[in-house]
Amino acid sequence: MHSLHSAASYLYTNYENVMSQPGKGFLVWLAGLSVLGFLATDMYLPAFAAMQQDLNTSAASISASLSLFLAGFALGQLFWGPLSDRYGRKPVLLSGLAIFAAGCLGMLWVHNATLMLALRFLQAIGVCAAAVTWQAMVADYYPAQRTNRIFATIMPLVGLSPALAPLLGSWLLVHFEWQAIFATLFAITLLLMLPALRLKAAAKSVVVTQQKITFLALLRSREYSGNVLIYAACSASFFAWLTGSPFILHEMGYGPTAIGLSYIPQTIAFLVGGYGCRALLQKWSGQQMLPWLLVIFAVSVAATWLVGLQTHASLVALMIPFCMMAVVNGGIYPIVVAQALKPFPQATGPRRRCKIPCSLACAS
Could you tell me which residue ranges the Major facilitator superfamily (MFS) profile domain spans (predicted)? Predict the structure, then answer.
């Protein structure tokens, strides 16, 4: 009888939480929101040469569209996060997706580089809302004991999206014009907006209980700012290749499909570095591993630069040192993120929103 009474009490106490937990469709929707930013960043990379020719502009202008996108993405995180905490996830998410959709739709009729750059910045501001809110919604709509499993389910897809996005972009470019890439992004955004229209407020809110801490206080911490700078430097090397590689590979005679395929090895290398770091951390601490990883990172950057100076460098020769850099980056990221978060364990929202904008701003 006591056991039955305990079970009944448990079910009564947890009935609301159990019944309010979202289903698989909600998880699929969150996964879609999580990769939308990477699709917006990487899907159009194989189209750089086609866009340069069609818009009659320079390679620098097309490359600047990626830098401007990263800058807009960094800026957006500074205000979308506080707005979602104050006004709720639904209005912020819908507003951001609407802005992103408008930016994608405008790309279908763009005829000059200036308007293209403005629309890419607008897209970054909009899609940033999805990047900010989906992680917060995991904490809002799932019980604490399930959040790690939810993140573990979604993150591998996030990790693979930088490789899959250029492949999808190259396929569209082979069969259609480059505008089809942004038409596809527009259609995906509309699909993601439909569930958002029916989104109900979460039964709990974790953001209101977090201790407030200013961005200035975060930046004053040497441990925090130092690790963020390392994160930013590693990100800058990665995005430098993303910006220049479409033109480099085009000049080497490679088409859109080959350019799209070239992003697969570096993505796999990054994942290998991340999982390898996880295994090595069972034997050594992050502080012990980080100096060695930074040395290897510096060597791989120098090797990539030296190979690039060669007149007849092959794609394989370029990819070997860069993939080594990707492996090291995959190991460095989790270490510096964990170390950056140590000084402020009580304020998860601001520190996350500050780390990413700082690193993306430096990368752009």
Answer: 26-364
